[in-house]
Design a protein that fits this description.
Structural class of chain A: mainly alpha
Radius of gyration of chain A: 19 Å
Helix content of chain B: over 70%
Radius of gyration of chain B: 21 Å
Mean pLDDT of chain A: 83
Mean pLDDT of chain B: 76
Oligomer: heterodimer
Distance between the termini of chain B: 63 Å
Strand order of the largest sheet of chain A: 1-2
Number of strands of chain B: 0
Largest sheet of chain B: none
């Protein structure tokens, strides 16, 4: 665990730095892909900004929903207390859904109709950004695994975690890289995949996340019916992804598998 | 729009530097600044100001993300450690080690 980078006497939060790096690298790679497809960087920047903005809001909203009591939140709002805005914490799925909504809004604002092309350029870069973010999780001491003392066990005493734990963050990062490579491979085989890549990402990440949840050991795991909140969301996302793939295949039978 | 993007970019930078508890507000302000700057550039409106607004907004968003976004689980892990008494055990162990 290494929560801060010490540069020129400044202590810079490692997790935030890796998150920012993930955004910058993701956008840069998306631009490199988009150039080959004929898109323009200003539209990409606008869409990315809208997606990132609503992703931050969505991630925070979902965190508040799972962490705060609704009555308490309403009471705070009623008193004019907005301190919940400064509460630290977000949930990835809230960010994902917010990001998708933000991207759609961005295409609307930019009056860009070729959104299939932009989606094709952007989607394989998302899991790569997630992988960088997961390294940030390891540095920051969050999203850790179950208690474990074997090879690769990590000590997160600075985060208040007793003993050593399984490096679930690194497994998640590796899974995200493999998902990105899988999407890039499919893109090479089907150059006109367009928005189908998004459906594949939704289904693929749902499977990855469902499995990874079994490796997690951090305490904020809302559980219902034996599955965590994220696993339930993953099941829904998998159903949505597969449903969209089937719908798209029926709409364009000549596109093949 | 170019002027508005510059103002929002500066607001985002200021919030990022001075008001840490409003990090998400700063990030959203920066995002709106980026959107307005791009739209102004596409329309050819005051390109210099729009570019300045774009740069300030991008830096503001990155600053807010770097300094003030934290993982929900990290915060919850610390909270859980406090509630379970694990942090007390760690403190006691450290005190014993230093005496």
């Amino acid at each position: 665990m290494h929560p801060y980078f010490h540069i020129f006497g400044l202590s810079i939060p490692a997790y935030g730095t890796m998150m920012a790096l993930a955004l910058v690298v993701g956008c840069a790679l998306a631009w490199l892909r988009l150039r080959k497809l004929g898109g323009d960087w200003e539209t990409l920047l606008l869409v990315a900004a809208c997606a990132i903005g609503l992703a931050l809001v969505g991630a925070r909203l979902l965190y508040l929903l799972v962490s705060y009591d609704a009555g308490r939140l309403l009471a705070e709002l009623g008193r004019g207390d907005f301190s919940f805005l400064s509460a630290e914490g977000q949930v990835f799925y809230g960010g994902l859904f917010g990001g998708i909504a933000g991207a759609l809004l961005g295409f609307r604002i930019a009056k860009e109709r070729r959104w299939g092309m932009y989606v094709q350029a952007i989607v394989p870069c998302i899991p790569l950004g997630q992988a960088i973010g997961r390294v940030g999780c390891l540095l920051g001491g969050c999203c850790y695994g179950f208690p474990y003392e074997g090879f690769g066990a990590v000590c997160l005493a600075e985060a208040g975690v007793p003993g050593t734990v399984f490096p679930a963050q690194l497994v998640a990062a590796l899974a995200d890289v493999l998902l990105s490579l899988g999407l890039l491979w499919y893109d090479r085989r089907r150059p006109r995949a367009g928005v189908r890549l998004l459906y594949l990402y939704l289904a693929g990440y749902a499977v990855v996340r469902f499995g990874l949840e079994f490796l997690r050991g951090d305490l904020v795991r809302g559980v219902a019916g034996g599955l965590s909140t994220s696993q339930w969301i993953s099941l829904g996302m998998l159903a949505a992804g597969l449903g969209l793939l089937l719908w798209e295949r029926r709409k364009r039978p000549e596109a093949g598998a | 729009m170019a002027v508005a993007s510059l103002v929002l970019g500066i607001v985002s930078l200021v919030i990022g530097c001075i008001f840490p508890y409003l990090g998400i507000v700063g990030a959203v302000a920066g995002v709106v600044g980026i959107v307005l700057a791009v739209l102004a550039r596409k329309k050819g409106e005051k390109k210099g100001l729009a570019t300045a607004g774009l740069v300030c907004s991008i830096i503001g968003v990155i600053l807010c993300v770097v300094l003030y976004i934290a993982c929900a689980a990290a915060v919850a892990a610390v909270q859980g450690a406090v509630e379970s008494g694990a942090l007390d055990e760690l403190t006691e162990a450290l005190q014993n080690a230093t005496t």
